[in-house]
């Protein structure tokens, strides 16, 4: 039952700005999906829910990067974006410059 609550827990983490925990949950679900998604349909559904939450997280982080934030917060956001692996290094640099 706890495993089935992972997408909802990830969304709760995002609502409260707990990006580290949301990224940890995403990594856990990705690991499970790599091992069992073909055999267990529920795991494939969890992986899809996690991907949806990841896209929401990406939008939230880019919005924060566009805002008026200080250097330490800016570095944290870039660190989260790196952990997400949503952008390669060149894309991350380009996105950073566009947002700032």
Strands, helices and their partners?
Elements: H1 6-15, H2 19-36, H3 41-66, H4 71-84, H5 89-99
Helix pairs in contact: 1-2, 1-3, 2-3, 3-4, 3-5
Structure description:
- By secondary structure, the protein is mainly α.
- It has five helices and no strands.
- The N and C termini lie far apart (42 Å).
Report Rg: 15 Å
Structural class: mainly alpha
Helical coverage, percent range: over 70%
Q: Which regions have little confidence, pLDDT < 50, spanning 5+ residues?
A: none
Principal-axis shape equals elongated
Number of helices: 5
Gap between N and C termini, in Å? 42 Å
SSE pattern: HHHHH
% residues in beta strands: under 5%
Could you tell me the mean pLDDT? Answer: 92
Tell me about the largest β-sheet: none
Concise synopsis of the structure shown:
By secondary structure, the chain is mainly alpha-helical.
List keywords for this structure.
100 residues, mainly alpha, 5 helices, 0% strand
